[in-house]
Specification:
alpha/beta, 14 strands, three-stranded parallel sheet, about 20% strand, 11 helices, four-stranded antiparallel sheet, about 40% helix
Amino acid sequence: MKKTLLFLTLLAAGTATAQAEGTSSHLDRVLQKGSLNVCTTGDYKPYSYLRPDGQYEGIDIAMAQSLAASLGVKVNWVKTSWKTMMQDMTSNKCDIAMGGVSVTLARQQKAWFADVLAQDGKIPFVRCEDVHKYQTLAQLNQPGVRLIEPVGGTNEAFARAYLPNAHLELFHDNVTIFQQLLDNKADVMITDASEAQFQQKRFPKLCAVNVKKPLQYGEKAYLLPKDDISWKMYVDQWLHLSKAKGDYQQIVSQWLATAKNDN
């Protein structure tokens, strides 16, 4: 009952705000224009990857297509980056941002999140022979540890907040960053457990460390424009039905079923 009253209150507030500002919900705009603007980085397997042939693939790419199909519209992919995603969202380039987006309070201050997709967490990703060396924050937070992280995302934020004594290098290509570990140009990449699990299947000499005991709790969710309750309620309901019917789990299993382990 309380949850229903909260939704009705938010709906009324959102409707009043939209009317006062002379704007419509993204739900109305998407239906009217016949397309869904999906911001995605294209550099984060298994969620979003822009192939050399110009086509996107991944868990959230398939989910974006499902969302568009539920609305009877087409997908318009909007290339973004982790550094510019929030700017693209607040400048109204995105109806939704998808592709392994982590929930953070900093992002919540400027945008909204749809319901949580799944739990995740930050873990070390290292050469397999070094797994024993990088188990804890104390082991990682040393001047001799060479960290490498993509620019502008939550991995960089984690490294700066919790590993200030380690040597941090920022890398501008989240697709080829793993080769830096293989080539011994870096020792550790702090990343989400889901990405590490997927990438260790592609790079057998790299290992995800303590998948079930992450260094930091995390969640994945889709990023939405702020103060648009009608749009959020639609996306949440679509996601709820996708999970209830098993569609979401089926898509995830195509990418992650073989990537799970007990490290």
